[in-house]
């Protein structure tokens, strides 16, 4: 099994993100892993962004959403109906996925996609 650890804030991109995440998660290779994030104070125009940081590398954007579920080639973002929480699903993790996963809130305008 492998350890996938995460922290709640990505300094420099969002300095006061009001999110909470578990300190660590474990998963078995080739199995899906669900990474939860709570953000009960989210406002209506804040997008939920997820970043992945592999050891000795910088943070890399993964996926983001506002209120609808989003799926891309690497992950699925499930947003709760009231937007008080979200879950990042990695469908088949490998040892290469071990790292830090950041859930942050970024204010947006309309439907624009921020980097």
Give your account of this protein's structure.
Pfam families: V-set (PF07686). The structure is a single chain. This protein is an all-beta fold and 115 residues long. The protein has a single domain, classed as Immunoglobulins (Immunoglobulin-like). The protein contains no helices and 9 strands. The protein is globular and about 35 Å long. A hairpin with a 4-residue loop joins β6 (70-71) and β7. The termini are far apart.
What's the structural domain tally? 1
Strand content: 35-45%
- Architecture, according to CATH? Sandwich
Envelope shape: globular
Rg calc:
13 Å
Q: Report the sheet with the most strands, covering strand number, pairing sense and barrel closure.
A: 5 strands, mixed
The strand count comes to 9
Mean pLDDT: 80
Q: Please mark out the parts with pLDDT under 50 across 5 or more consecutive residues, or reply none.
A: 1-16
- Binned, the helix content reads under 10%
InterPro entries: Ig-like_dom (IPR007110), Ig-like_dom_sf (IPR036179), Ig-like_fold (IPR013783), Ig_V-set (IPR013106), TCR_complex_component (IPR052051)
Keywords: Cell membrane, Disulfide bond, Glycoprotein, Immunity, Membrane, Signal
Domain Ig-like: 16-115
Protein name: Ig-like domain-containing protein
Task: Give the structure's gist in a few sentences.
By secondary structure, the chain is mainly β. Helices cover 0% and strands 43% of the residues. The protein has one domain (2-107): Immunoglobulins (Immunoglobulin-like, Sandwich).
